[in-house]
């Protein structure tokens, strides 16, 4: 008898992206998928929509976090709740629906801690085997992580820096699992000299920085240090290679001008959108001509959505003689690991994840000053430009033993970051856990058990699609197997009416099982009827329309119960205090609510409010 595979729901950056989280997703999910032991479901953060066509090419099932409806997206984007805007990009909008639909044995969330705001308070949390694999990169540790760490049984961090501080605070269950790297992709190349010569760099000492162009990556400080080195030692033949997107984040050309650096000494990676080959040249702008295929204005600098292969990325590292990584903080900083694997010595600051690297004798520490980040009060590192200049001079002058550093750095990185080692530890955890227990009250979809029977003269396939959409509410692609079974049953002689009745019965049983959660969980005093209940409207437009009334209701009444989803909680919490009764808005009916409030024969509310059309209706309980 074949054992049922355990199902994993993985929520992180998409494995198609070139971000650190995305590359980690690719490495881990491929490993787990290739074992053949698990059903893998990838839940991708923005920019992917729920049914995004780009996800269909993945070998496993995948969904996107961004709402399909443009109206929903625009309403959230134009709203005042910044928390909802952020959490929607990470996955909060569909997470309950996916848990209900896929019923996974595992949920693994991999991102910054705030990506999973309130997940750990959901009814399915720890009923499903849950783990958060989190980057914590600054002191003091993010407050929400400290306050909720006890709820997270499997709390993994990306660096010893975070583990040590969480352990010091009393959370001994927090442990380090480094990000996973395919170490076979990054290695010293035997043709390094020829490679440098192909780009005219055979007589230059090349310093490099691989980074996403964002605020904590201090490219301005690096260029300032490079400038200082050039001024102190005019005969320096150094070049600075920046593998990043020049059209986002920091204005790199402005730094070059400010610190009076020769533009020819600052190199950029360009990639052709047609032939996909790369070139290394001084930056003159995006959309330059390709020297490989001759395409006009086809070459741009890399981004998280458009880049080069790992083997080509290894060539970029091998063009460098020394790698410098100036950042304020970081959860792991994958380019440091990749450069070490490629045999390129490294310098970075001994703060945040940099501590773990600078503890190694082959990594050169960059002096830094501490500052506090506005708004968060986080301690951050400001690398010192003159320290960077000194390191550059020592590299060029041959003072540093780069050969020994190269060998020792690679050996250490192989031992610490090999995906087979990292993934094996995750696999051991997966195999040690029992299957999930799905006995929690759901906040996901109710089915439409009022869908009317239709026996019009249409094809069996069209009839089956209409039935599945009408009762279960999912798109055709999501219930394709069910539709095929219905069509087969019709061909085998089963009547449409019989299949319809079976679907309605299934929907009613599903909805009934959700209604049977005791309402006593929501009331302090079951005999006190002086509460009011408000049923959240279905559409976001209607939610906005009733917001003023809801705000006045919360001011007027002692206790207000809101029937809605976790998304509604986020939308309405800005208008007043309430207690959420979990339900899906598509199937909420007044009769359903009254049946709940009277499940013990006792009156729960003095009034129930709901919106019908554009007129707000009041109902006295009978």
Short description:
With 622 residues, this protein is an alpha/beta fold.
Strand segment count: 22
Classification by helices and strands? alpha/beta
Name of the level-1 CATH class of the largest domain: Alpha Beta
Shape by Cα distribution: globular
User: Uncertain spans, ≥5 residues at pLDDT below 50?
Assistant: 513-527, 584-592, 613-622
Distance from first to last alpha carbon = 55 Å
The proportion of residues in beta strands is 15-25%
Gyration radius from CA atoms, angstroms:
29 Å
What would you give as the CATH superfamily of the largest domain? Glycogen Phosphorylase B
Helix share, percent: 25-40%
The overall pLDDT, averaged over residues, is 87
The structural domain count equals 4
CATH overall fold name of the largest domain = Rossmann fold
**Alpha plus pi helix count:** 22
CATH architecture of the largest domain: 3-Layer(aba) Sandwich
Largest sheet: 8 strands, mixed
């Amino acid at each position: 008898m074949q054992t049922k595979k355990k199902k994993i729901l993985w929520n992180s950056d998409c494995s198609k992206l070139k971000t650190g989280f995305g590359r980690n997703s690719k490495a881990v999910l491929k490993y787990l998928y290739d074992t053949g032991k698990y059903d893998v479901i990838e839940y991708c953060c923005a920019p992917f929509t729920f049914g995004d066509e780009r996800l269909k090419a993945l070998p496993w099932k995948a969904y996107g976090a961004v709402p399909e409806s443009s109206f929903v997206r625009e309403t959230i984007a134009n709203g005042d709740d910044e928390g909802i805007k952020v959490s929607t990009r990470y996955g909060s909008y569909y997470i309950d629906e996916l848990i209900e639909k896929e019923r996974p044995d595992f949920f693994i969330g991999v991102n910054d801690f705030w990506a999973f705001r309130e997940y750990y308070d959901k009814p399915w949390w720890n009923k499903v085997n849950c783990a958060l694999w989190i980057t914590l990169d600054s002191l003091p540790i993010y407050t929400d992580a400290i306050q909720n760490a006890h709820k997270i049984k499997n709390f993994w961090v990306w660096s010893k820096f975070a583990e040590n501080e969480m352990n010091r605070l009393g959370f001994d269950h927090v442990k380090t699992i480094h990000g996973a790297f395919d170490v076979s992709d990054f290695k010293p190349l035997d043709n390094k000299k020829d490679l440098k010569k192909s780009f005219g760099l055979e007589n230059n000492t090349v310093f490099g920085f691989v980074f996403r162009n964002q605020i904590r990556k201090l490219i301005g400080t690096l260029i300032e240090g490079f400038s200082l080195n050039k001024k102190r030692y005019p005969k320096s033949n150094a070049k600075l290679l920046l593998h990043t997107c020049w059209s986002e984040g920091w204005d790199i050309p402005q730094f070059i001008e400010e610190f009076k650096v020769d533009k020819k000494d600052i190199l950029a990676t360009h990639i052709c959108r047609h032939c996909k080959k790369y070139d290394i040249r001084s930056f003159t702008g995006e959309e330059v001509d390709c020297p490989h295929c001759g395409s006009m204005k086809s070459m741009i600098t890399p981004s998280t959505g458009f880049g080069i292969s790992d083997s080509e990325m290894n060539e970029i590292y091998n063009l460098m003689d020394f790698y410098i990584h100036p950042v304020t903080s970081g959860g792991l900083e994958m380019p440091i690991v990749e450069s070490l694997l490629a045999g390129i010595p490294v310098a970075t600051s001994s703060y945040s994840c940099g501590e773990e690297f600078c503890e190694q004798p082959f990594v050169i520490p960059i002096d830094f000053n501490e500052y506090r980040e506005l708004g968060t009060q986080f301690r951050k590192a400001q690398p010192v430009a003159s320290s960077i200049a000194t390191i550059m001079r020592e590299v060029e002058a041959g003072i540093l033993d780069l050969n020994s550093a190269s060998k020792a750095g690679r050996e250490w990185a192989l031992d610490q970051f090999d995906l087979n080692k990292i993934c094996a530890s995750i696999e051991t955890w997966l195999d040690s856990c029992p299957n999930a227990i799905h006995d929690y009250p759901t906040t996901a979809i109710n089915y439409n058990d009022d869908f009317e029977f239709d026996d019009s003269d249409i094809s069996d396939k069209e009839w089956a699609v209409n039935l599945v959409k009408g009762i279960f509410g999912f798109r055709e692609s999501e219930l394709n197997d069910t539709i095929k079974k219905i069509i087969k049953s019709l061909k085998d002689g089963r009547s449409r009416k019989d299949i319809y009745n079976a679907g309605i019965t299934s929907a009613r049983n599903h909805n009934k099982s959700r209604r049977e959660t005791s309402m006593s969980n929501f009331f302090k005093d079951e005999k006190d009827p002086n509460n009011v209940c408000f049923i959240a409207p279905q559409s976001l437009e209607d939610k906005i329309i009733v917001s003023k009334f809801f705000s006045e209701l919360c001011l007027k009444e002692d206790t207000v119960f809101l029937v809605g989803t976790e998304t509604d909680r986020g939308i309405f919490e800005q208008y007043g205090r309430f207690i959420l009764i979990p339900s899906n808005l598509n199937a909420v009916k007044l009769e359903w609510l009254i049946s709940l409030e009277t499940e013990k024969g006792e009156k729960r509310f003095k009034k129930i409010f709901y919106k019908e059309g554009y007129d707000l209706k009041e109902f006295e309980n009978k």
